[in-house]
Amino acid sequence: MAGTGVFAEIFDGEVYKYYSDGEWNYSASKKTVAIINPTTRKTHYKVQACSQEEVNKVMELAKSAQKSWARTPLWKRAELLHKAAAILKEHKAPIAECLVKEIAKPAKDAVSEVVRSGDLISYTAEEGVRILGEGKFLVSDSFPGNDRTKYCLTSKVPLGVVLAIPPFNYPVNLAVSKIGPALIAGNSIVLKPPTQGAVSCLHMVHCFHLAGFPKGLISCVTGKGSEIGDFLTMHPGVNCISFTGGDTGISISKKAGMIPLQMELGGKDACIVLDDADLDLVASNIIKGGFSYSGQRCTAVKVVLVIDSVADALVEKVNSKVAKLRVGPPEDDCDITPVVTESSANFIEGLVKDAKEKGATFCQEYKREGNLIWPLLLDNVRPDMRIAWEEPFGPVLPVIRINSVEEGIHHCNASNFGLQGCVFTRDINKAIMISDAMETGTVQINSAPARGPDHFPFQGLKDSGIGSQGITNSINMMVKVKSTVINLPSPSYTMG
Q: How far apart are CA 108 and CA 341, in angstroms?
């Protein structure tokens, strides 16, 4: 159970503590933040509301601990990461329980997220040993006009303190996707979890604590974004920010200054369906891509752009599958569970109302109970409807009928987002040409968008992000190249 057994020290009474200097602490503010269960819409957990003074202390500790950690042998860093991964997977049940209660993630998916996170940490440890264990040797006479009088040795050195800010929808997985690369590279970590998902993150951090990482190296501060959000992202002690979320990331990027940023800020992932596509395959992937975890995924299919001649057949196939989706509480492993907050549900409802007023075809009756919204396919959506452009982050999917591939590409590229997209066709030549034309970070051919596997590059264009993720890319982003140049008194040639 959450907050019991090996996790008992992170919880006292009805409030979870925050993690600093290798210990679980209460905030001196005496304030807490309530975490609302999306299903019951009642307070389920409480976490500490950390103060700016406590953030300052955490940064000071992180800076000091990082210096020692950077001197820790690479194999030892990897060993501790492997240990944390094993502990995390061993205690998947209580962490998954938190995911069910905090973010209404279906029970099976919650367990899968924790196991996947452990696998990600282990892979990161192995990849880090390979990447960071190698440098470069350059010689000066490879550039015109130079003799062989300089030897350049390059290595990768840590940046310092990495601020990690994951989103609510994958709070554990997207936290460790930042923590693992930062630690193997020799950095320290300050984690600011989302409010919905904070308790899951605290349990995950305790697994790193049990693995025996040095004090001060890993911190987890909880609290209100309005009080410590900007203070964290603009803190002079931060040397790198890895953020996953929404529009807040754009604000962070404008304030962050001269530090490396890694950001994924959402998407309006387009699914382009050609007239030669396998419509059964398309329908299955639309269901998986558009409705899994109630559409609360940055890589969810967010708009279907289908050639008009096959649109009727595709909509019929998708509708038959929508009818089979189970709707209800996450504890019952339902396909469609409540969206994370009431404000999210209200936003989705606003998009639905706009579409109705402007004449979209409702393939199902719109139904909502609290935060629970039944899956809804909207046909005959037009570009003047908000749902054609805005990201609902819920189980509502628009279908736009197009007359040509060019029309579909134009709609995709007119979006301010550019995270992922997908193309369904039996013609690989057409698929490649469409992929090349789509202004998105990734294009999936004959499959729904997806972030993983976690070692694949993952990046967005335009308002969808800065930089590239994926284990290798994240490690390389969290280091800098350092050069040491040996100057010889006279030219020296190997075997000369």
A: 21
CA 2 to chain centre: 23
Catalytic site positions: 264, 298
Pairing state of beta strands 396-402 and 376-379? parallel
Amino acid at 75: W
Cα(413)–Cα(407) distance, rounded to whole angstroms? 10
The answer to whether the beta carbons of residues 58 and 36 sit under 8 Å apart is no
pLDDT digits (tens, 9 = 90+) for 274-324: 999 999 999 999 999 999 999 999 999 999 999 999 999 999 999 999 999
Is 273 strand, coil or helix? strand
Gap between the Cα atoms of 441 and 419, Å rounded = 5
Place of tokens 């987002």: 417
Query: Whole-angstrom Cα distance, residue 395 to residue 373?
Result: 7
Rounded distance, CA 470 to CA 488, Å? 40
Closest of 45, 14, 125 to residue 77, by C-alpha: 125
Q: What angle do helix axes 198-211 and 74-90 make, rounded to 10 degrees?
A: 130
Q: For 79-121, what is each residue's pLDDT tens digit? A: 999 999 999 999 999 999 999 999 999 999 999 999 999 999 9
Task: With both helix axes pointing from N to C terminus, report the angle between 173-184 and 198-211 in degrees, rounded to the nearest 10.
Answer: 30
What percent of the chain is helix, strand and coil (3-state, nearest 5)?
40, 20, 35
Instruction: Compute the Cα dihedral for 459, 461, 462, 464 and give only its sign.
Output: negative
User: What span, in angstroms and rounded, lies between the C-alpha atoms of 232 and 20?
Assistant: 15
Chain mean position to CA 1: 26
